[in-house]
Amino acid sequence: MPDRTLSTSLEDSFERYLQDKGKGRGGDGGNYRRNAARELERFVEWTAGNRSNDDWTGVVPNDVDREPTFEDLDERVFREYARHLAGDRGLKQNTVQTYYRYISAWCGWCVNEGYLEAHYAQRASAMAPLPEDDGRKPGDQQAWTSEQRHALTRHVDEQAREAIEMYTTLPENTAPLDKQRARYAALKAARDRALMFVLAYTAVRVGELLRDPNDPRRRGVRWEDISLEDGSMDVYRKKQQWDAASLPDPVISPLRSYRKLMDPPTDRWPVFTTFDQRTLATLVQDELADRGERADAINERRDEYARDLLLALEKDVRPPSITTDGARSILQRLSDVVEIDIDHPKHDYLAPHGGRRGMGEVLVRAFGYTVAARYLDNSEEMVRERYSHIEAGELGDVATEALTEVDSYK
Fold it and tell me: Which end of the chain is more exposed for a tag (fewer CB within 10 A), N or C?
């Protein structure tokens, strides 16, 4: 291996690695890139002696003044880092494993790129200090039950119906701003209802449905992506390609009602638009300014509307979609309001992925693994693995029935 490679600082390899692992044009997007960058930063701080107890001085010899380079790395270094992660009492067992995998993946890339001679991070001695997997099974992960799903959708349906009725039955002499406030409240309730129904019944991943700030390709579903007549929705799948997802009957009516109420200027508007006032205020002011309107005229126009979203609808100032984190915030709020009983070690609210897994359980139980795999956009093998607890339970019932029948002859 060339000396210049060995003398390369660890940080000098990070950007190329992250570009290779990133998504979108230039490899500058994606959750994996963001998480890997965070862990690489922690690792390089640790190698420099800046992330550990007072006795740890890093991997560079004490009599040398330089940044950590590849010549400082060997399996003993990765073993010590595994011990460092495992010694953090604030981390769960599977979290330690996850953090180490980010560093191990980078180490493997470094071997392929010629920075390292061997994949030191994967050697048995290096991984020995890592804790064993905590034994968490797919069936232990949150899945909305029928009771939870019905309680949530029933609540948002009632809220939307009340808000829409209040808006549509206003007297003709209602003041314009009061009428706008009622429309805004109805729009927000209708959006939340449509979003909850989609999460509850379609099994679409939340990252395929809404905007991900870390992945420019995931800009959120637009009205042009939805066909209410065909009962389908085009989404950018986890497998990095566009595909059609099914919209079952319970989802159609909330979406149709929401679209009628919103009446978007074009089909390129996001279905689940943000209602964040700060975001919309900045967007409206910047867009109208770009169209040549003066600041005082923009302020006067904004004063005519109860909310900037309504002005954006009038002037076709297209807002961004709500983010995946925004959906989680809505679910946290609704879980508290509805007082849904949730017993889960990680989430004290109905998490978005729980809706998908809940539908997966329904489909596996009703139609088997093959149909469920098609609906969930997964391989049948993966669905069997993730929902193996269902098959185990059913086999247990079969065993119980067999024992009952055999014992009855004694």
Answer: C
Query: What gap in Å lies between CA 279 and CA 283, rounded to an integer?
Result: 6
Q: How far apart are CA 85 and CA 79, in angstroms?
A: 10
Smallest CA-to-CA distance from 40 within 76, 71, 32 is with: 32
Beta carbons of 235 and 221 less than 8 angstroms apart: yes
Tokens of 398: 């079969």
Query: 3-class DSSP state for residue 270?
Result: strand
Nearest to 338 by CA among 186, 125, 75, 153: 153
**Each residue's pLDDT tens digit, 286-332:** 999 999 999 999 999 999 999 999 999 999 999 999 999 899 999 99
Strand-by-strand arrangement of the 226-227 sheet: 226-227, 232-236, 242-246
* Burial class for 266, CB neighbours closer than 10 Å (0-12, 13-18, 19+): exposed
Q: What pTM, to 2 d.p., does this model score? A: 0.66
